[in-house]
Amino acid sequence: MNLFSDSRWSEALSHLPDYLGNHVRVSIAALTLGLVIALPLAVAARHRPLLRGALLGLAGIVQTVPGLALLALFYPLLLALASLSLAWFGFGFSAFGFLPAVLALALYSMLPVLRNTITGLDGVDAAIVEAAEGVGMTPRQSLWQVELPLALPVMMAGIRTAAVWVIGTATLSTPIGQTSLGNYIFGGLQTQNWVFVLFGCLSAAVLALAVDQLLALIETGLRRRSRLRVALGGIGIAALVAATLVPAMGRSQVGYVVGAKTFAEQYVLSALLAQRLRAAGLSATTREGLGSSVIYDALVSGDIDVYVDYSGTLWANQFHHSDIPPRRQLLQALQETLAQRRVTLLGELGFENAYALVMPKKRAEALGIRSIADLAAHAGTLSIAGDYEFFSRPEWAGLQNAYGLTFRSQRQMQPDFMYAAVASGEVDLIAGYTSDGLIAKYDLTVLDDPKRAIPPYDAIVLLAPKREGDQALRAALQPLLGKIDIAAMREANLRAAGGDGASSPEAVARWLWERIGRQ
Amino acid sequence: MQPAPLIAFAHVGKSFDGGRGAGPVLAVDDVSLEVAEGEFLAIVGGSGSGKTTLLRLANRLIEADSGRITVEGEDVSTVDSVALRRRIGYVFQSGGLFPHFSVAGNIGITPKLSGTPAAAISTRVDELLDLVRLDRAQYRDRFPHELSGGERQRVGVARALAAKPKIVLMDEPFGALDPLTRDALGNDYRALHVKLGLTTVMITHDMTEAILLADRIAVMRAGRLLAQGTPAQLSKNTDVYVGELLRTPRRQAERLNALLPRDGAA
Predict the structure, then answer these.
(1) Complex confidence, ipTM
(2) Which of A130, A146, A225 has its CB closest to that of B61?
(3) Which of A169, A185, A507, B110 has the most CB atoms less than 10 A away?
């Protein structure tokens, strides 16, 4: 089979206008903002050693914060600001997606711009600056007509560096709700779609190189005083921006946005929901790869219209309950809590995706472990792995308290690699998900939870406050409620991890719908 | 009665921060000096003598610590420094041309800053190129890096003259040029000085150049004005350093006469 005959390439390509357009828009906005802030600061700092040290130090510190963390930090910050602004001035703004991404990336772009602008201005021959004064230039005229033009090549080199950094780091803005080329990478990693991962990396690299080369053209043009080069580079950048703006203008802004968290099941379910909405004649798009805490806030603020969450997650993480009522009672209480926030709990899909402690069947039998209670005696000699969230979630604390568990070591892992790790003996057990198809594939066993320390995790469909009375939306999603059993979801998840053309979330969602229809 | 001097320094002092730990360095120490209208004054001294500082005090590229400096009868500390610099021509040591401006752009900068219309500047640039004997068509659009040292300094002179100043200050203008170019440029400038009725103050470390071009010479050493006067007046000065400075060109001329045959190429 030809590598490129894989249908995933054409699927990846079909997302390109949307992902690339968003990526370019957020990068350009961030870079522009970064320049607008950093350039005047650098000019102001050039004769002020104290300010200059402080600026470069601060920008240096920002630079050491990992890109993903910086982006993630802006989300709660803006959320707090938005609620303050709503309380004080009567208007809020979306703390989701574009704004936090632009702010964080702008901050990220500032160091090379600051450093090169200061260095460039310092590097202008003192005799030339004195000549500018001598021919009767004011300090401002000297700056604009002599110092900045002469420092420009060095400044452009800094702007190039900043542009490449911003374009690369913008791929990390997917988890805070900004569509970018990172959607390929995050989505591809979650669904083991390496074609997507590769496609995302390649397109981000090509974009960075293209912008870098255009800016390089401007830079050499400035150095050699070639207006032609500067004009060509400028036209290239303008064309790139225009090309990504045109489709955005043509696209209608109305339509439903279906959110998805960062794992394969969520990708499949969001694709399924979007397909059902389209089948009912509604326009729908998906917003994937959203962090667990981001997605609920995004629903409340109306940035997304609908998504699937899990009862226990909301109960313990979002509403901070430490008691665990029986399943029905929990759902009832949750529905009431959500209603106070005008979020509609439309209904359950019919399966649970609970956290569960999972280990190889043979190993469990050999050790005589059937439940978590049996595990306690062995825990000191065993190692456990969980996803990035698990060990900081209240359920983990609850589980440890209930059974008195202390493991030899605990590790965090990408969910898709956990199962293979436990099957190969890399770790002794994992905190997996009950709906995961890999449990059967790797011959693993789910340990019982006799003390019911892990809350129930019914998959539930939530609607945004602004869609409270939306009958068309309710009608379109109604056929899904109660129809997806654990067996169907496990198989769907297994298919999604298949790593071939039939494993795209869209394809698996279609398969799942057919299966529901057959029942 | 003598006419009022065009430039006058009265008991002027200026010191600079000597850097880490060191005390302030006195660059100009109680200097009083007058330059009459139409005069060509050369200030001669070694490096560190304070001659360049004294020149820069005149158009306030540097501010004086003490004393009084007047230009055309006005105390420079009371006039707008930018306006002052626009009406005083200044020729920098190695041209000080803006590398990103063409020859025409460099020459026309001061009129442009003062808001002269582009057409008038263009005419003026051509006049000035003629004046400093550079071919209009050939040089107008060149950039400084495409010029020889002598050509650059001619452009520097043209730039200083662009706004039709009465006064031209020159900071070792011909110091970095080869002897032939230097001689030609010096003579050309002296002719311009006479033709345009300029008042010129030129800094140089070369007494021969000062004697050949200037009407009057001021000698500086360690921030102090040692002597001033015409070459003839200076030759009667009793100061050892002044005497040594004046004897050197004469001794060189005598040795040259002895070494070069009378009927040779020179």
Answers:
(1) 0.89
(2) A130
(3) B110
